[in-house]
Amino acid sequence: MQSADFKLEHVPVYILAGGQSRRFGSDKARATLDGKPLILHVADGLRLFASSITAVAQVPEKYSDLGLRTIADLQPALGPVGGLLTALADCAAPWLLLTSCDLVGVARSSIQALLTADRRTAQVIAFKSGLWQPMPALYHRSLSPLVSQVISSDRRSMQLLLDSAVVLPLPHAAASADARGVNTPGELDGIHRSRHGA
After folding, report:
1. What pLDDT sits at residue 177?
2. Distant-in-sequence, close-in-space partners of 96: CB < 8 Å, separation ≥ 6
3. 1 assigned to some structural domain
4. pLDDT band at 151 (very low <50, low <70, confident <90, very high)
5. What is the domain count for the chain?
6. What range defines the domain where residue 59 resides?
7. In a domain, 168, yes or no
8. What CATH number corresponds to the domain at position 48?
9. Which residue of 16, 31, 47, 141 could cross-link 83, Cys pair, CB 3.0 to 4.6 Å?
10. Separation of alpha carbons 162 and 150, rounded Å
């Protein structure tokens, strides 16, 4: 429980929405849950912590009709690593919070755990349970050269990036058990049913 004088830190938030949604069959960022596009569920859940919110997509302004500043991937079709590179290039602040357009239900306590961690010697703050949980996570702009190296390798993997970076791992138990990614319409329907007891 935070004290009454606890001051929330605000950081730039970047929401990755540049995937092709092959398994979903349509733009899953615009798929609706309780009448609201998934990307807005994510954005609204992070506004308390955000100094700004930016979507990273295939083309600029793709989600401007939803009130979201949207920039285009510097190098399209590179997955989350490419989206992170774009976010780091765009961000003027030392740190940014990276998440994805389909990761709904992240608890505020999880974001607070990231923001209150000691980052003095780290490039990344991320949850870990066996594998790294690359989103949501905090990334420092000094990471850009390493991201570029990973992109030029055969494995454009966030796991490889985090294995190579200076990361402060947080226990996965601190992350929200309710946070769920959506890859298929069936998974979205499952979230809806779990929320409404159907």
Report:
1. 46
2. 11, 12, 13, 14, 87, 88, 138, 139, 141
3. no
4. very high
5. 1
6. 11-196
7. yes
8. 3.90.550.10
9. 16
10. 10
| Radius of gyration of the chain, Cα coordinates, nearest whole angstrom | 16
pTM, full prediction? 0.88
> First-to-last CA distance in the chain?
33
Task: Look at residues 111, 112, 100, 126 and name the one whose alpha carbon lies nearest to residue 41.
Answer: 100
Amino acid at 193: R
CA 123, 133, 136, 146 torsion-angle sign:
positive
How far apart are alpha carbons 33 and 31 in whole angstroms?
7
- Written as one letter, the residue type at 31 is A
Alpha carbons within 13 angstroms on the beta-carbon side of residue 127 total 24
Of how many residues is the chain composed?
A: 198
Q: Which two structure tokens, joined as six digits, stand for 148?
A: 């570029």
Q: Distance between CA 77 and CA 142 in Å, rounded?
A: 23
Return the bridge partners of 36, or none: 33
Decide if 170 contacts 126 (C-beta within 8 A): yes
Q: What are the helix (H) ranges across 27-129?
A: 38-46, 79-90, 108-116
Measured at the CA of 120, the angle between CA 114 and CA 125, to 5 degrees, comes to 30
β-partners of residue 169 are: 126
- Predicted confidence at residue 179, as pLDDT, reads 59
Of 174, 190, 164, 173, the C-alpha closest to 104 is 190
Task: Determine the residue type at 101.
Answer: C
Is residue 5 situated within a structural domain?
no
Residue 174 CA, distance from chain mean position = 16
